[in-house]
């Protein structure tokens, strides 16, 4: 099956793509990215799953009804819940990357009956760390840099905050597909919305560890084998896994390992989802 669809939700219209057959696997992208970030990963999953990737509200093709406003993890979690309800009654498999992993954690905590397994890959939940106050203050600095000096300054301060400034990114093993390149072209148009209305409310989310531990969904926290403890998302993932009482699951590549190492990443993701 292959289809591009939209779903009306309160305050926005979500764009989503459906590929493959089998149980539903919802793919949640992070930050200013959209469904195309998974374009090279999805073909490796459609033999086992009906893969559904979407643009979070305010990004790319998921348009808002009115003026932009802050979007927190609860709003994003509600969107994911409504999308899963549109897709059927059975609990779904869910994969979230970065900020998308934060959304997945919110979804699994608040709507556990909707989620069979959640793989949350490097969620930047800075509030689980011992230096949480420093992280929260850092996100405010990012926002002020954006307000005072614009997108470029805001993104520069953001990369410094999350530990990506000056870091060598792992080179891709395979060239990106045209669909992914098209998606990268859209990301620039999402940066204003991300810095103004998403970064602070989503990265400030504190996962409900008690609900996650007691819920019916199985929670897998993922980290990249090329990520480092200089990076907030990696540190947050390790700390959250410890609070959940389970070791983190190691995936190929760095924070975006599914981009440059999609085939290897898909093998690890299928293994983590298990039983599908």
From TrEMBL:
One of its GO terms (molecular function) is hydrolase activity. It comes from the Bacteria. Keywords: Hydrolase. Residues 23-157 form the AB hydrolase-1 domain. SUPFAM superfamilies: alpha/beta-Hydrolases. The keyword Lipid biosynthesis does not apply. This is Alpha/beta fold hydrolase. The lineage of its organism: Bacteria, Bacillati, Actinomycetota, Actinomycetes, Streptosporangiales.
């Amino acid at each position: 099956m292959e289809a591009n669809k939209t779903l009306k939700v309160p305050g926005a219209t979500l764009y989503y793509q459906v590929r493959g057959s089998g149980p539903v696997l919802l793919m949640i992208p992070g930050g200013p990215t959209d469904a195309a970030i998974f374009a090279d990963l999805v073909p490796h999953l459609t033999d086992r799953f009906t893969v559904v990737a979407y643009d979070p509200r305010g990004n790319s093709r998921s348009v808002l009804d009115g003026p932009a406003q802050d979007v927190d993890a609860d709003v994003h979690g509600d969107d994911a819940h409504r999308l899963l309800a549109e897709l059927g009654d059975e609990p779904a498999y869910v994969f979230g990357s970065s900020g998308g992993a934060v959304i997945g954690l919110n979804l699994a905590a608040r709507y556990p009956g909707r989620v069979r397994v959640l793989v949350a890959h490097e969620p930047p939940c800075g509030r689980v760390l011992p230096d949480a106050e420093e992280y929260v203050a850092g996100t405010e600095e990012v926002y002020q840099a954006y307000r005072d000096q614009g997108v470029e300054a805001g993104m520069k301060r953001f990369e410094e905050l999350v530990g990506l400034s000056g870091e060598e990114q792992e080179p891709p093993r395979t060239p990106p597909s045209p669909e992914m390149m098209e998606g990268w072209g859209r990301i620039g148009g999402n940066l204003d919305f991300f810095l103004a209305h998403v970064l602070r409310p989503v990265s400030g989310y504190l996962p409900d560890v008690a609900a996650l531990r007691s819920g019916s969904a199985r929670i897998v926290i993922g980290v990249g084998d090329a990520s480092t403890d200089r990076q907030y998302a990696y540190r947050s993932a390790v700390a959250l896994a410890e609070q959940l009482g389970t070791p983190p699951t190691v995936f190929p590549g760095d924070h975006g390992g599914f981009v440059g190492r999609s085939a290897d990443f898909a093998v690890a993701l299928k293994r983590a989802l298990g039983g599908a």
